[in-house]
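Run log, item B.
One chain of 228 residues. Sequence copied directly from the ordering sheet:
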Amino acid sequence: MGEVIRKRAPVKDIFADTRTTYDRAVVRGGTFQALAEQRLGPVLAVVSNVEAQIAEVEAKAGPALAALSAENGKADKLLGKVSDDIWNALGRPAVDPHLSLLFPGGIALYTDGDVATQPRRMELLVSLLRRQVHPRLPGDVREAAANTVEEAAALLRAKVEPAMAAKTQLEMLGRVRTALGRAAQMELANLKRLYKGHGLREVDIHEVIPTRSRASGKKGAEPAEPVG
C-alpha cells in the first residue's frame, strides 16, 4: 500500500508532493481534478504567496546584512584606534584604573556580542568620555574620541535597523512556511481519504499522489527558516 508523505518530512518535499499531486490531478480530470482543486488549491495559493514574500525579503536582506557586516567591521576597527589613541595620549600606562573605566578588559565590551546592540554600547563609551571619568585625559583627545565614536555609532545604527527588520521578517515567514508544510501534508492525507471514499483504486490514487515509504521524513521536520 502506498503512503502519503509524512508530516515531519522536510517542508520543501511536502510542497513538491502537493504541487505534483495537483498537477497530475488536473491532467487526470474528473473526480481527481475536482477534489484536488477543492483540497489543495487553497493551500497552494497561500504557499505561493508566502514563498513570493520570502523571495522578496531575501532579495532585500542580502544587501542589508552585507552592509551591516561591513559597517560593523569599520566600527570595530575605529574603536580599536580610539582605544590606542587614548592610551598613547596617557603615555601608554601599564596599569591605569581610570582607563579601565573606559575600556574594561579592552574594547571587547563594545565590539563583542550582538551587533544589533553595539550602537548602544558605543554610546555608553561616548557618555563615559564626556563625563570626564579619566582626570588626566587631555580635553581635545577626549572630545575628538567622543565625537568619532558617536558618529560611528550613528552610522552602524543606520545599517542595523534595515538588516534586523529583514531578519525578523524572514524568521516569521519561515515559521509560517513550516506551518503551511504541515497543513499541506494534512490536505494530501485528506485528499487520499476522499479519493478512496469516492471508490477510486489505491493504484490509481498513487499515480496522482506520490508514493512515499514509511521511513520517509522520520529524520525530523525541516527547521523554520530564516534566513539569512
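Observations after the first pass:
- The chain has eight helices and no strands.
- The longest helix spans residues 139-197.
Flagged for discussion on Thursday.
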